[in-house]
UniProtKB/TrEMBL annotation:
Gene3D superfamilies: Cytosolic phospholipase A2 catalytic domain. One of its GO terms (molecular function) is hydrolase activity. This is Putative esterase of the alpha-beta hydrolase superfamily protein. Residues 12-210 form the PNPLA domain. Keywords: Hydrolase, Lipid metabolism. Pfam families: Patatin. It comes from Natronolimnohabitans innermongolicus JCM 12255. The lineage of its organism: Archaea, Methanobacteriati, Methanobacteriota, Stenosarchaea group, Halobacteria. GO terms for biological process: lipid metabolic process. Transmembrane segments: none annotated.
Amino acid sequence: MSSDSDARRVAIACQGGGSHTAFTAGVLGRLLGDAALEREVDIVGFSGTSGGAVCALLAWYGREHPDESPDELLADYWSDLAAEGPLDRAANGAIRWASRLERAGVPLPDVSPYQSPAASWGRREFLTLLERHVDFAAIPELLDGNEPALLISAIDVLSGEFEIFREDDLSPEAILASAAIPFAFRAVEVNGSYYWDGLFSKNPPVKDFVTNRETPDPDEIWVIKINPERRDRVPKSADGIADRRNELSGNKSLSAEISFVEHVNEWIEAGYLPEKFTHTEIERIRFGRPDLHWRTKLEREPEFIESLYADGEAAAEAFLAER
């Protein structure tokens, strides 16, 4: 963290998108591995949803733990996630096979994650992988009041209310709650409440950086976006419609969050708010693979993951060059 009082305060928000967030990991690894950038900015927070929540956690933990580095931790996690073992490759192949059948119009049986052995296996695999890279029991010792905020989004299945898990109440289950896609995972219990994937809520948290009075208002929020905002033509194929529906669903809450911050900026400029409120610029680092359909968000082939990670590094490099 920069100690320069003139450093720009920056928060980084990571949109969800399953395997596509390997791109996010590449962006974060490149940004947080840049010594010059660390001298120029003061990172005051990370936020994330679903796969973006995992990336935000790894970035935060890698920066705060004295024996870790965020770039290495992010690269190691995504390398481990790639389907390299026989069982992993079989599971990944089954997902692709089912996806092709569905696209061909072959009806597939609906199986509840509460009845599916595959769902239980996926839950165990997710938690095991996460705990292999993050020592959650050590997190309380990392909290001294000077660490960046960490905001993880999920939604309460029963009340429909947004939930933000903070750095002082992190657990493997809280991260899983943000990533628990309803058709793939059973609802995740945390402290007596049940949660689903944060794509239904804040994807990712943005306005909380400016409404939370416990942390400094950022001068800039860098949003790492997975879903494109615009398309050139109306989709007409079943695949195209499904892709666009997924993109719009993933962008809906983010658009509202960014709109709130932009309105606050307008009120500040108009003199409607006290001086303690500060202007916050929104910068976007966009995923540039519009050719990928939404089902590839479940793809775990090593070559695919590596290409996304490399794309993220390149996007971060371009972002830094523009600055």
